[in-house]
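Predict the structure of Glycosyltransferase family 2 protein.
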Amino acid sequence: MSSSHSSSDTAAGPSVSVVVIAYNDAGLVGEAVSSALAQGPVVAEVIAVDDASSDGTAGVLDELAAAHPRLRVLHRTENSGGCGTPRNDGIAAATAPYVLFLDSDDVLPPGAAEALVRAAEEHRAPVTVGACVRRELPEGREVPWMPGLYTPGDVIERPADRPELVRDTLCVNKLYERAFLEKHGIRFPDGRFVYEDFVFTSRVLAAGPRIAVIGDLVYVWHVRRSAARVSISLDRKDVGNWRSRVEAHRTASRTLAAASPELGRACQVKFLDYDLRMYLRELGRDPEYRAAWWALTRAYLAGFDPADIAAAPARARWAAGVLAAAETPPGDVERLMRFAAEPARLLPPYARDAAGAPVWSAELPVPLDGLDALPVAELPVTVDAEPAGAGAVRLRVRDLYGRLAGAGPQTVQLSFPPRAGGDPVLLRPVELRAAADGDGWSAEVPFRPAALAAEGRRRGLRGMQAWDVRVGVRCADGSSLHTSLRPLGGLLRRRALPSSRYGVLLAQPYRTAAGALAVRLAPGAGGALTFVRNRLDRARTRRSR
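Done. Here is the predicted structure for Glycosyltransferase family 2 protein.
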């Protein structure tokens, strides 16, 4: 395709083929297809590829196609086992100048295609990227995908100028010029290739396209963790998922390194700082899984260039160092899991080597190189929380090899971000004092669940409320850090509290998968019933897996 279209042409004529892939998703695919058709006349066609579904997906698509001339349905006779082959089928069938991808359980927000095409035409960009959010269902909480990676309005002349772009491995938040894909022979891996996005995106970046960036929301990625059949990327019940991710990364890394040393190194750093830490913090307690995961990861990291590891952030280097130093999962593997969480927390004890330098532990003296250079905001500080009588918690801010002491901690401030999304509830800062035993600093902070529940209700939260708990530490030198809390003692005990507004308030502090403190509040009998029902639903989900 020649890039001769103007912005006025874009508004007047159809320009986009939207490729929707589906497999056994009869209940959701209609919403996805409808969101593509609703983009308006800029969408020339919607190509839905049914990957030999065994439910009613094919019928749903055929019925929609009968009512919407712009919808074409391709029926595969054999299931491909992955997402790559049906997407390739869609590319081959596409006739419009641009291609946009959509999964059957996600949606395109209104105006997405139009905004992408306008930018592509204006900047003669073979690739245009917009904002994406992960929408957690059924709660509806939205988490931006890769915030801060792109600057709206930017035009990136070549990917090697922005090596950090390798962190965005999604194919669905981007518009592609079809002629560009054809010229470079860019396709997805075929068959049951998990994380096919990694490879496709690496091939796109390796081809060196100009990339236009818009600030518009162009994709809503639905995350259904409690679904009976979770998505391939969320299906991490055995080590096979991690093996697939490693293989996809290996292929992507080689592709990028062959095109640009900068992109190749950035891909390796991304694996250490993102993929590795994500799976570490979800390592779980199954000893067989841990052992298999550990062996696979050590073998893969052994092939990394030391310069690539040295280029990674400190916390990624330290985690890789622990893996290299221990042939099997160490006794403090759960400490490593907490360190890999976000925000990172390095739990005590804190060991030093014979020369007095900080190391991971006495058993694994991995140097914590670069600790002295970390700004206070990035220190993996641990803050403990335990009961301090009725209506208060005692916080203990742990020092980290003297780094925090140098900044002079002065106050702590609790905040409660609602897990459903929204602004946090902030409490007043409380002065810190040196702990009586000399180990860090402590303060007693009011914690009144009834007041928090009332604020939640004022904000429109009904039934059971779920809140994360965060803490901010401000220091004398003007620096500050924000982290989560480690619950200790009897803090996780459920309490039924009298409430003048609700009659009774059920408060359940709990430990998240990352080991951080959070709290559920069930105001009144209705809220308590919701709390019990949710617990039963979670128990059933765990048993089904």
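The chain has a mean pLDDT of 91.
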